[in-house]
């Protein structure tokens, strides 16, 4: 059926287009099978999101789209009482093609984006979400539903990503625990889909400063992943203990010389130094210290750790660039990578992957301003989860016009550019 439709549309000799259409058609069929209650209404709603004239402003407006053949009552009923087999849909997303770095490595970005609901006083499960207002230093805490997203980052001059998972954080959830489970399940699904096999480079996972990257490295040590996370500039790390002099007395120390990030002039000679010329930031200079670790204490997440606290070693990286857009004297960026004995190539890969993390901000903007992820005034958080997965499932279909899930359409326009 697919081949016949492609030939009729004059694409018989366009092999990449044929393969692209086949993948999209299979995904649409799998998406339809994942909708086990109010399937037709939910599927047409996902098509209406893609085919709406302009940005999605509310749910009722989608009922006017030609792709949604039901009334607005069926639309609300589907969102509130439909059913999406989320685990099956997660496997379908993991089975799609993924972007890879130049060495074939998969790079994942993890971040939290809030669905702000300040006026929904009776809606359960809300948390105070950290948001940035207009102007420097205008951070605010607004009630809403925070969602943790995992997406595969693309290399090159593009901000297009491949979202793979979304989890809503509840009032009783610990961010590190939820993130550990989420990353572990995503990596397992990628391995099951054949994207990562034994002998291939480890998956690189990038985090922002709000994550405890050292604890995440400890909890995910059994997975084939390398972690990179941003650090606060007031952190203190330690180098390994130097060799003890002969006949030294007393208990041997567990931590070596201090690395105070707030006083870079006092830092020892780095193990690796690299300099890279970039077109956007000028010269990027990275210095790295090998086997740097933080001193853990029996507080917070380590309070119930009954045995001796571990020493979690990694590579401490200080990145300095000449300039940023709109800022001539940028502050240094501190990163920590779970890779030990890192080479110059490993250091450059780490900070370059961290810079790709900002691509997720463009995708969040696309979700909110174009696809209308946070536009509906939904009261039930479970309905919000259902709508979130519809938007997430509509995203891979953005290069294919809406049709019945059992047929294949001719290719439409290219996917929208998240950078506008």
Structure overview:
The protein has helices spanning 2-8, 15-34, 39-51, 59-62, 72-81, 86-94, 175-192, 213-219, 344-356, 359-370, 381-394; strands spanning 35-37, 83-84, 107-116, 127-132, 139-152, 162-168, 203-207, 225-230, 236-238, 258-260, 272-278, 282-292, 314-321, 333-337. The chain is of the alpha+beta class. Among the domains are: 2-93 and 381-399, no CATH class; 227-239 and 255-296 and 309-346, no CATH class. Strands 3, 4, 5, 6, 7, 8, 11, 12, 13 and 14 form a 10-stranded mixed beta sheet that branches. A two-stranded antiparallel ribbon has the order 1-2. Strands 9-10 form a two-stranded antiparallel sheet. It starts with a helix and ends in a 26-residue tail after the last helix.
Question: In short, what is this structure?
Answer:
With 420 residues, this protein is of the alpha+beta class.
